[in-house]
Amino acid sequence: MKVILYYLALLNLLDGAVTYLGLHHNIITEANPLMDAIYEAGPHWFLVLKVALSVILYGLNFTGAVPDGKGIRRLALFAVILYTAVCGLHSLWIIPFVLT
After folding, report:
1. Count of CA atoms in the C-beta half-sphere (13 A) of 95
2. pLDDT tens digits in sequence order for the chain, 100 residues long
3. Dihedral through CA 14, CA 91, CA 82, CA 22, nearest 10?
4. Fewest CB atoms within 10 Å of the CB: 38, 48, 65, 94?
5. How far is residue 27 from each of residues 13, 38, 79, measured CA to CA in Å?
C-alpha cells in the first residue's frame, strides 16, 4: 500500500509539472474545472497546490496515518491507474513539443 501511495504522490507532481508546461505554452487546456480555475487565478497557485497535495500524501503515508483498509487500497489503485493513463496521454503531446 505504501508503494502505491508514494507512486501516487509522484504521479501528482509529474502531472502538475507537465500540465503547467502544457497550459503555459497553450498546448492543452485543463479538463478539471477546479484546477482550471486555480490555474486561471495564478499559475503559481496551481503548482503550489499540486506540490502541497503530494507532500501531504507523502507525509501521511510516511507516518502511517493512512488507513490500510480494502476501500482505501482500491481507491488508491484506481487513482494510480487513472493518473498513469493521464501521464501516458501527456506523453503524446509533450514529446512532439519537446522534439520541435
Report:
1. 6
2. 899 999 999 999 999 998 998 899 898 889 999 999 999 999 999 999 999 999 999 999 999 898 888 999 999 999 999 989 988 888 888 778 777 6
3. 60
4. 65
5. 19, 18, 24
